[in-house]
Amino acid sequence: MGSTIKVTSNSSAKGSIKVAFATNDNENIDAHFGSAAQFNVYDISADDCEISTIIKIEEKDVDKTVALLKGVDIVYFVNIGATAAAKIINSGIFPIKYKEVVSIDDEIKKLTAMLNDKPAPFIKKILEKKAA
After folding, report:
1. CA angle 103-35-78, nearest 5°?
2. Per residue of the chain (132 residues), what is the pLDDT tens digit?
3. Range(s) of the domain holding residue 16
4. What digits encode the pLDDT tens for the residues 5-40?
5. What CATH number is associated with residue 84?
6. Distance between CA 33 and CA 74 in Å, rounded?
7. Cβ-contact 127, 45 below 8 angstroms
8. Which long-range CB contacts under 8 A does 37-43 form with residues at least 24 apart?
9. What total number of domains does the chain contain?
């Protein structure tokens, strides 16, 4: 299935989102959803960002990977199959696909700036759902 490494965190910031990045090199969003070596999960708020979990994928099984991502709000990757995309969306996770490799740090900076300034409608919806 997969091994999960939890990182102890004192942060449970109000207005935070849980974001997973599909990665093979630990620095970039550089993996296809179905073949990622791991997902690095961060708690991101307007003024803080901490890695909370590293999910190592040991078995390439879409259903098991989706189950491991339970509780994540957004997942980033460079590609995904239609069936996997439907399963992600049906589990309440917002998928974001890039066509090229992007730095995880750069994307975190964008998300933090967006949370500080003007969150995109899909992020507002996530925050509203969490506050309810």
Report:
1. 35
2. 456 565 554 444 568 999 999 999 999 999 999 999 999 999 999 989 999 999 999 999 999 999 999 999 999 999 999 999 999 999 999 999 999 999 999 999 999 999 998 899 999 999 998 887
3. 2-131
4. 655 544 445 689 999 999 999 999 999 999 999 999
5. 3.30.420.130
6. 13
7. no
8. 39/65, 39/68, 39/69, 39/72, 39/75, 40/104, 41/69, 41/72, 42/18, 42/108, 43/9, 43/11, 43/12, 43/13, 43/16, 43/17, 43/18
9. 1
